[in-house]
Amino acid sequence: MVNQKKIAGEKACEWVEYGMVVGLGTGSTVYYTIEKLGELVQQGLKITGVATSEQTARQAEKLGIPLKSLNDVVEIDITIDGADEVTGAFQGIKGGGGALLREKMVAEASRLNIWVVGEEKLVDSLGNFPLPLEVIPFGWKQIKRSLEKEGIQATLRTQQNKEIYQTNNGNYILDIVNQTFTNPIKWQEKLAQVPGIVEQGLFLNYVDIIICGKADGEIELIKK
């Protein structure tokens, strides 16, 4: 059986060149990108990584990939990341792994953004996957109530042990469920008006190239 994530993740390494500053995303598909980059570094490729999560940083350090913080680079040449959903119009939802704020900051600083996905992540419209909102713990219940007054259903993300999930930034995540985002730009503007929402998982027009691994072993490249 073809590992769609692996073939997509490894394919993205072809865009990485010697001396580049590379944004390293978070998730189960970009995991394979980072593993491959680790192999290439051992073979002599010189890059500097900027990790979007503590999880990614640990993986990269274990593989010998040199890292810098976002504060220590002026610009990122290329960022490779995954997505929870993406449309043919280059609109996506990210944040299933809880790293949406850092992922968006790194994407914003990048000259080129590549997303690696399996074909099940390609959708006609956004919303089948819950939309994550990173929120300040102080008053998160007020944020939830504010959304519910607007008819928006949001659930507090918890861990398997039922404890509240916390991001690497010490914040909570509310996941908007049972909602279709047919006009994501309007939703982005709407959510930006809610005090206490630090960032939301709509990534609109960030991605330049989508690399999609398919069940038959083929790789589809979707470019702007």
UniProtKB/TrEMBL annotation:
<comment type="similarity">
    <text>Belongs to the ribose 5-phosphate isomerase family.</text>
</comment>
<dbReference type="InterPro" id="IPR050262">
    <property type="entry name" value="Ribose-5P_isomerase"/>
</dbReference>
<keyword id="KW-0413">Isomerase</keyword>
<dbReference type="InterPro" id="IPR004788">
    <property type="entry name" value="Ribose5P_isomerase_type_A"/>
</dbReference>
<comment type="subunit">
    <text>Homodimer.</text>
</comment>
<dbReference type="Pfam" id="PF06026">
    <property type="entry name" value="Rib_5-P_isom_A"/>
</dbReference>
<comment type="function">
    <text>Catalyzes the reversible conversion of ribose-5-phosphate to ribulose 5-phosphate.</text>
</comment>
<feature type="binding site">
    <location>
        <begin position="94"/>
        <end position="97"/>
    </location>
    <ligand>
        <name>substrate</name>
    </ligand>
</feature>
<feature type="binding site">
    <location>
        <begin position="26"/>
        <end position="29"/>
    </location>
    <ligand>
        <name>substrate</name>
    </ligand>
</feature>
<dbReference type="GO" id="GO:0009052">
    <property type="term" value="P:pentose-phosphate shunt, non-oxidative branch"/>
</dbReference>
<feature type="binding site">
    <location>
        <position position="121"/>
    </location>
    <ligand>
        <name>substrate</name>
    </ligand>
</feature>
<dbReference type="InterPro" id="IPR037171">
    <property type="entry name" value="NagB/RpiA_transferase-like"/>
</dbReference>
<feature type="binding site">
    <location>
        <begin position="81"/>
        <end position="84"/>
    </location>
    <ligand>
        <name>substrate</name>
    </ligand>
</feature>
<comment type="pathway">
    <text>Carbohydrate degradation; pentose phosphate pathway; D-ribose 5-phosphate from D-ribulose 5-phosphate (non-oxidative stage): step 1/1.</text>
</comment>
<dbReference type="InterPro" id="IPR020672">
    <property type="entry name" value="Ribose5P_isomerase_typA_subgr"/>
</dbReference>
<protein>
    <recommendedName>
        <fullName>Ribose-5-phosphate isomerase A</fullName>
        <ecNumber>5.3.1.6</ecNumber>
    </recommendedName>
</protein>
<feature type="active site" description="Proton acceptor">
    <location>
        <position position="103"/>
    </location>
</feature>
<dbReference type="GO" id="GO:0004751">
    <property type="term" value="F:ribose-5-phosphate isomerase activity"/>
</dbReference>
